[in-house]
Specification:
The complex is a heterotrimer of chains A (632), B (489) and C (103). Chain A has a two-stranded antiparallel sheet with strand order 1-2. Helices cover 78% and strands 2% of the residues of chain A. The longest helix of chain A has 69 residues. In chain A, helix 1 runs antiparallel to helix 4, helix 3 runs antiparallel to helix 4 and helix 13 runs antiparallel to helix 19. Chain A is mainly α. Chain B is 74% helix and 3% strand. A two-stranded antiparallel ribbon of chain B has the order 1-2. The longest helix of chain B is centred in the last third of the chain and has 36 residues. Chain C has 103 residues and is an all-alpha fold. Chain C has three helices and no strands. Classes of the chains: A mainly alpha (632), B mainly alpha (489), C mainly alpha (103). Chains in contact: A-B, A-C. At the A-B interface, strand 1, helix 5, helix 6 and helix 25 of A face helix 6, helix 9, helix 11, helix 13 and helix 16 of B.
């Protein structure tokens, strides 16, 4: 068995075993995740030197499925497995009192397996397949409490948004396979060609859907209706990360025009989502908006042509954001909700969790020496150094500023004030989960050096200017967020930001309603078509009945004719002898009369005979003469 | 050497005759005989499957004199295109008789009709003689008509009328086309192999034959705008009728499209390919949108069939249009696999809708709701089937649609707009799931029972095959691919 | 010569005409038979004239004349036989009274 399967198989087997056996739930899921972590670490160790591990699996004819582990993919696999493991550890405590745990752990394990496959996928078919599968997993997990209408809605919305955007991935994949003649990712990325701009834009569309970039950010905030461990997993290392991972991996393909658009989308998103986060009144929704904002930053890095910076930020963000979410889940347990009005002062009640939260928040804001500082610096440096796109730098800095602002605001709201804490004891599992991720969030920055060395990607060394600007932005943001309330900070934008910066009602109005309108139009047309065919049928029936009437008439006529002939027949039969004999007798009489008349000629007188002879001869003569005179 | 094909073909008929001959059999006996017959047929189909099909031409051919004077004979055989459909039919009919084993209302006639239909279906897929094909094609219509008219729901007369109109419209052109092919062949024969080997018609004659076939098959598939009989028939048909109608009988149309239109008039098809392609794209998108607007669960599933069969038309049209053999192979692989997958998935969906209807006596999504909590097993199987139908990877439709779209983009890039259909269908099913299964469970359905053993036996095999085909499509695709890659057009 | 033929033919025609008149106008059987003889005589004159002026070399004309004269003689014999028998039976040869052959 190839080492490539090691990160994938354990969670997959765990998921299947959970569905079949329905016992030992947490143990099995945790075991799967831990083994996956071990497997991916081992895999990373094997490929760290720059080799690749490949495994071919039977797939479509002439398009086998490939799993390829290179340094980057192995690294990502480690990140996914780490986050997954700790989230599952946390979930043991968080989900203790829920029912339907079998489903929860099974889908979580499946999710992990799918994400590992996505990371390690070496061909487009497999990538596309697991890309959609993680969509399914997130649907099932966001809709875990499917009895709640908002969870059911959110699940459907998340799936539909990402699925619609996935059409971009579908078409891009077809174009790449078509132009490269193979479904292998590495080969088709090198092939490039004329289609690569279009393919790149389509890939971007898919990534925008998954990574919740403007204007497809709406579903991410609503997805908070799911359980918190699910949010942590979705936002840090799986569903949402998939979009950024896709762009990072396909970076060699992206042409300058595409990079421009990528940078633009990322820049706009990081600012817009930052503003939304700043205006948010719910901790989890704030974190969700922050996720979109941070992925915007990664897209900025990709757009600036430095995917390495995006990758580093992805790794750091994975650790940071999962810590934040897990901590938020703990607060949620303490207060029975995630609204800031409920959460006031919760930091004092849960000091250990809050400490983890603070560390992660500062890391996200970019305070040295925490991990976020290094990754964000890399992004800002990349943005500042980008050729010909001077606006990328300011956008990235604005994103960093906003990050500081909303994190400080969250910290402020969580620390100040006081609220009623429910008598629910924190769980050791949950604290372990938070700290298990808070530690990498803190120290991951130190590992960036070796990681860069392993990855062998072009890097931009952060100049002093970038470091200073980044620090300044973070400090300003933190200060402003702590001191100035959000409504005043945002001014007139605040009400709009509260509505999620939606333009004219958002995608629901712009896409959903027209689609439904078309559907209803089709339905009306359908009704008409149906009626038309039915009336055709009625006409046929009418014709049939008319022809039946005609038939009946014809039948009557035939009957009539029959009767008449029958009558004739009986008539004839009854008067048979009389009639026919009479006829014969009449004939005889006529013949006799004729004979009697002819007898008159026969007078017996010789003169008569002679006279007749003479006349006859005269007539004959005349005829002969006449004939001869005309013929000659 | 056993004549496997003929045995498989006529076993159900024997079963039907047996059931009709028994003097006053108990209902139970009837069902047991039906299940045994269908199971034996499945075994027959499986042994045919393991015999396999060689790449080019037909395998397992059996031939008998029939009407030598006009060159018609009893000829049956399979290739990689028909073999999956034979297997699909055998599976679906077994599932159908298992599901129907709770029927108490005139079971004898019903079961006999189902078994007759099975013979007709397998016969349609295996026939290698024009006349024989037509006979089976027509017999299936008759038995389906009686199933709908005799055991349908509230408004069955109307549906039966609809069915009747289209049947009338649809069958005659095919007969004309078959006669045209017969008269056009150098030595008059009804042997379809000869027709495929040397397409007998060319020029305008071929075009007219193609048009005639397209009319028949477009009604059968059904393609917009000749599809209106489908929702009507489905809504009124009994559950098993729907399963067979959607699962097996719609494939007659697409199978005919490949076997007759594509293989016997290839040049004409290439000329008219764009029209067919547009027809397919319109069907797929129209079906998807119409499905989105439905509030009746069964109508919804019926319209998704229009959508899915639209993809098949697109695949076949792309195969006809393209000059690149590798693209053609991919397109046909996708189209044939799509037929197979659609049979499994839609069969399962119709069974599940039937189960819901049995329990709730309504199919209106607005009246249902929260069923996932009330009947979790039924709910989750429906979720699985729904996601399979919307083309989720790992389930049966994905590899098929992937190949169709891939070939479409390579062959006729503009037609790739059809891919919007998968987003719309996703919306359709998400809406249906949301309204029917998610949300608060309702008091009204509290006492609804979950799946019984009989229902599990009916729907289980289909779901297993759906997952199996999705995860490892090569077990079906292998046999399809061997034929499609050897196809010379 | 042609003139002579015409004279002969006219003579024959006159004889025939007198004969027809006699046969039709007389009521006595003997007289009727005489009329008939005159008709035949006209025919004989014609025959002889045609033979003499048109085909003098052929003998068939003469032979035909002899046959006709023989037939005339035989006919006369039969006719007088009938007349005698009639006279003996009825005492008269007036043909106006003889309607016995009426059918």
């Amino acid at each position: 068995m190839s080492a490539v399967l090691l990160p994938i198989l354990p969670p997959l087997i765990a998921a299947l075993a959970l569905l079949v056996l329905r016992r030992g739930l947490a143990t099995m899921a945790l075991g799967g995740a831990t083994l996956s972590l071990g497997g991916s670490l081992w895999l990373l160790a094997r490929v760290a030197g720059g080799q690749t591990e490949t495994l071919l699996l039977p797939g479509l004819p002439e398009m086998p499925l490939r799993l390829v582990a290179g340094p980057m993919t192995a690294l990502l696999a480690v990140a996914v497995a780490t986050v997954g493991t700790f989230v599952l550890i946390y979930a043991v405590g968080y989900m203790k009192r829920e029912s339907g745990l079998c489903r929860f752990y099974a889908v979580m394990s499946l999710f992990l397996a799918a994400m590992q496959s996505l990371v390690l996928a070496g061909d487009w078919v497999l990538l596309l397949a697991v890309w959609e599968l993680i969509g399914l997993c997130s649907y099932l997990l966001i809709g875990f409490w499917f009895q709640r209408p908002e969870a059911a809605d959110a699940a459907g919305r998340a799936f539909l948004y990402t699925r619609s955007a996935d059409l971009g991935l579908y078409v891009a994949v077809f174009m790449l396979i078509g132009s490269a003649g193979t479904s292998e990712i590495a080969a088709s990325l090198e092939a490039g060609g004329s289609a690569s701009t279009a393919a790149g834009l389509l890939l971007l569309l898919a990534a925008m859907g998954k990574s919740a970039q403007v204007p497809l950010q709406d579903w991410l905030m609503r997805a908070m209706a799911g359980p918190t461990p699910v949010s942590a997993l979705l936002h840090s290392a799986t569903l949402v990360a998939a979009g950024a991972i896709l762009l990072i991996r396909s970076a060699p393909l992206l042409t300058p025009e595409v990079l421009l658009v990528v940078g633009l989308v990322g820049g706009v998103t990081t600012v817009a989502a930052g503003v939304i986060a700043l205006a948010e009144r719910d901790l989890k929704r704030l974190l969700a908006a922050s996720t979109a904002s941070q992925y915007g930053l990664m897209l900025v890095a990709v757009g600036a042509g430095v995917p390495l910076a995006a990758l580093l930020h992805l790794l750091a963000h994975a650790a940071i954001k999962s810590t934040l979410f897990l901590a938020a889940g703990d607060f949620q347990h303490a207060r029975g909700g995630t609204g800031f009005d409920q959460l006031e002062g919760v930091g004092r009640d849960r000091p250990w969790t809050f400490a983890g939260f603070v560390l992660a928040a500062l890391a996200l804001a970019g305070i040295p020496p925490l991990s976020g500082f290094f990754s964000k610096d890399a992004v800002i440096a990349a943005a500042l150094s980008a050729q010909g796109t001077a606006w990328l730098g300011p956008l990235a800095l604005a994103g960093a500023l906003l990050t500081g602002g909303y994190m400080a605001r969250a910290l402020c709201l969580l620390w100040r004030g006081s609220g009623e804490t429910r008598p629910v004891a924190g769980s050791a599992w949950m604290t372990l989960g938070v700290w298990g991720l808070a530690v990498p969030a803190t120290i991951l920055g130190l590992a960036f050096g070796p990681i860069e060395a392993v990855l062998d990607l072009p890097a931009v060394t952060a100049g002093t200017l970038a470091v200073l600007l980044g620090l300044l932005a973070a400090a300003c943001g933190l200060g402003l967020g702590w001191l100035v309330p959000a409504p005043r900070l945002l001014g007139p934008v605040y009400p709009w930001a509260r509505r999620g910066l939606s333009v004219g009602g958002g995608l629901t109005v712009w896409v959903g309603r027209p689609a439904m309108a078309v559907a209803r139009g089709c339905e009306r047309l359908e009704g008409r078509l149906y009626e038309a065919v039915l009336s055709l049928g009625r006409a046929g029936l009418f014709l049939a009945s008319a022809s039946e009437r005609a038939e009946r008439g014809l039948f009557k006529i035939v009957l009539c004719v029959g009767r008449v002939s029958l009558r004739v027949a009986t008539y004839v039969r009854f008067g048979d002898e009389r009639r026919i004999d009479g006829l014969i007798f009449a004939l005889v009489a006529a013949v006799r009369a004729l004979g009697a008349r002819a007898r008159n000629l026969q007078s017996g007188l010789i003169h008569h005979s002679l006279a007749i002879s003479a006349v006859a001869i005269a007539v004959t003569l005349a005829v002969l003469l006449f004939a001869s005179s005309t013929s000659f | 050497m056993l004549p496997l094909v003929s045995l498989t073909l006529f076993l159900p008929l024997v079963g039907a005759v047996l059931i009709l001959c028994l003097p006053k059999p108990a209902t139970r006996t009837v069902h047991v005989i039906a299940i045994i017959t269908a199971a034996l047929t499945l075994i027959g189909a499986l042994s045919m499957w393991f015999q396999g099909a060689s790449g080019a031409g037909f395998s397992q051919v059996e031939e008998l004199q029939w009407i030598p004077a006009i060159g018609a004979a009893y000829r049956v055989g399979v290739d990689g295109i028909s073999l999956p459909l034979v297997l699909l039919s055998a599976v679906l009919f077994l599932v159908a008789v298992i599901y129907t084993s709770s029927l108490r209302e005139r079971p004898r006639a019903y079961i006999a009709l189902v078994l007759l239909l099975e013979t007709a279906s397998i016969g349609t897929f295996t026939a290698l003689d024009g006349i024989l094909f037509y006979v089976f094609f027509e017999v299936s219509l008759v038995s389906m008509y009686f199933m709908i008219a005799g055991w349908g729901h509230e408004d069955r007369q109307r549906a039966a009328l609809m069915f009747f109109i289209y049947t009338l419209l649809g069958s005659l052109p095919l007969l004309l086309a078959i006669l045209g092919l017969y008269l056009g062949s150098p030595e008059p024969t009804f042997d379809m192999r000869a027709w495929i080997e040397n397409p007998p018609l060319e020029g305008a004659a071929a075009m007219w034959a193609l048009i005639a076939m397209l009319i028949t098959f477009a009604v059968k598939i059904p393609a917009v705008p000749l599809h209106t009989w489908l929702p009507a028939a489905h809504v009124q048909a009994p559950t098993v009728g729907s399963v067979i109608l959607a699962g097996v009988m719609l494939k007659f149309g697409t199978y005919g499209l490949v076997r007759f239109a594509l293989q016997m008039t290839p040049d004409a098809f290439r000329e008219a390919g764009v029209v067919v392609l547009v027809l397919g794209v319109v069907s797929a998108l129209y079906g998807a949108f119409a499905a989105l607007a439905q509030s009746d669960l069964k109508r919804l599933v019926a319209y998704t069939s229009v959508n899915h069969m639209g993809y098949v038309i697109v695949g076949v049209a792309v195969a006809a249009l393209t000059l690149d053999p590798s693209v053609r192979t991919v397109a046909l692989d996708g189209a044939v696999l799509q037929m197979f997958s659609h049979g499994l998935v839609t069969g399962a969906l119709f069974l599940l809708v039937g189960m819901i209807q049995d329990r709730a006596h309504t199919r209106e999504m607005g009246e249902l709701g929260g069923l996932l909590k009330t009947v979790p097993m039924l709910g989750w199987t429906f979720v699985l089937a729904a996601f399979a139908s919307l083309g989720l990877p790992g389930l049966a439709h994905f590899p098929a649609e992937f190949q169709i779209f891939l070939a479409t983009l390579s062959g006729s890039p503009a037609a790739v707009v059809v891919i919007l259909g998968i987003a719309i269908i996703a919306g359709t099913f998400l809406k249906a799931l949301r309204e029917t299964f998610l949300g608060e469970p309702r008091q009204r359905w509290q006492s609804m029972p979950d799946l019984s053993a009989r229902e599990w036996l009916a729907v289980g095999p289909l779901l297993v095959l759906t997952v199996g085909t999705g995860v490892a499509p090569s077990w079906v695709l292998g046999i399809i691919h061997r034929t499609t890659s050897a196809l010379a057009l | 010569m042609t003139l002579v033929l015409i004279v002969a033919l006219v003579t024959g025609a006159i004889l025939c005409g007198i004969g027809v008149y006699g046969a039709l106008s007389q009521t006595n059987l003997v007289m009727i038979m005489m009329g008939v003889e005159l008709i035949l005589a006209g025919a004989l004159v014609n025959l002889v004239a045609f033979w003499r002026f048109l085909h003098p070399e052929s003998y068939s004309g003469q032979m035909f004349v002899l046959v006709v004269m023989t037939v005339m003689a035989v006919e006369m014999a039969v006719g007088f036989g009938v007349a005698i028998a009639r006279f003996r039976a009825k005492g008269s040869v007036e043909m106006e009274e003889a309607g016995d052959l009426k059918g």
